[in-house]
Amino acid sequence: MSWLSALHLRTFLTLVLAGLLAAGNPGGAQASSRIKDIVDVEGIRDNMLVGYGLVVGLNGTGDTLRNAPFTQQSLIGMLERLGVNTRGTSLKTANVAAVMVSANLPAFASQGTRIDVTVSALGDATNLQGGVLLVTPLMGADGQVYAVAQGSLATGGFAAKGEGASVTRGVPTNGRIANGAIVERELDFQLSDLRALRLSLRNPDLTTAQRVASAINAFIGTQTATADNPTTVQLTVPPAYRGGVVALLTDIEQLRVQPDLTARVVIDESSGVIVMGQDVRVSMVAIAQGNLTISVSESPQVSQPSPFSTQGDTVVVPRTDIDVDEETGKQLGILDGSISLKELVDGLNALGVSPRDMITILQAIKSSGALQAEIQVM
Q1: pLDDT given for residue 164 in this prediction
Q2: pLDDT tens across 338-370, in order?
Q3: Do 283 and 210 share a structural domain?
Q4: N-term to C-term CA, the chain
């Protein structure tokens, strides 16, 4: 039996064994994730492109050349390249807008393929609807041109106004051109020639990195993967896969591991949103929640002299009513030690705690040392 046949046989048996284990333990299969969903392969990524260009054909909604000198300079330069001399003349067109063009160059995009581009107004243009982007080179971080964009814009918003009213919906100064750029330069990256790969975890964690390395080693049958740090798993291409890095990645990205995450409470104070992980634990703690509310209302009354009286004046007599609510009905609640996330939420809900107050309570529990989790405030 050749080494290739043996490798395919081992792959088949491993997948069959994994399927039997998953069938016998459906809960674990639901909790696990594929390696391809929790890691990125170094070198297989998008690259950001950006360029500066002009959009023409606008219906009087372009840049005001007096307020946007860069638009005027770009327009004069473009016309000169086309053989039209406009220097020394006063340009008053309002149908041109300077824009920034951005795009993502996919990994391994070949020359001649098309990619989408986003166009955003740079000056004081009010609407890009109906405009056409002229030829715009798109450059990478190294200053090299990798694509060229041109085409008609499609905007997701609109603006309309009359003499007495105006309406704007969405962002009419931002548009998109589907397949609006052509790739002119390919990235020099040969995946098949690599002898070592690095897998980067999207959520760094030491335990998860070790589990990924262990799952790969168990599948390959040799010690080929090592966890260097919480983010990186170093993978050496085994001899059986020489020249077949794509086949190796295809096999290992389907393996399933159980990610392990840090107990964390994420709080967005601006919106009052609270997200807590399943491993959040709280030691025994007593919680009392209540506020002192004082309501002050004014009920002024008018005091007048007796009828036909020759003395006295009509005056306003102030009347103030003060109501103090100490919320005496609120009681001290006790949360038992090492409670789970569900029990914590049920306990806080039983106290009638609002999301805003819950944020303050969680921060106070953390300060007391009873919250066994990290708090991250956005």
Answers
A1: 65
A2: 566 667 667 667 767 777 777 777 788 788 777
A3: no
A4: 59
Tell me which of 284 and 321 has the higher pLDDT. 284
Segment 76-88 shows an average pLDDT of: 87
User: Global pTM?
Assistant: 0.65
Tokens of 372: 């066994």
Local structure of residue 119 (DSSP, 8 states):
E
Cβ within 8 Å of residue 257, ≥6 positions away: 32, 33, 35, 38, 208, 211, 212, 215
Residue reference for tokens 């990924």: 212
Task: Looking at the structure, tell me whether residues 174 and 84 fall in a common domain.
Answer: yes
What's the chain's length in residues?
Answer: 378
Same domain, 268 and 353: yes
SS3 221: coil
Percent of the residues in the chain that have a pLDDT greater than 70, as a whole number: 73
Range of the domain at 147: 47-156+170-183
By CB atoms closer than 10 A (0-12, 13-18, 19+), residue 172 is buried
Tokens coding 67: 């307020």
Q: How far apart are CA 51 and CA 105, in angstroms?
A: 13
Structure tokens at 94: 């309002």
Residue 194 lies in a domain: yes
Average pLDDT of the residues in 25-32: 50
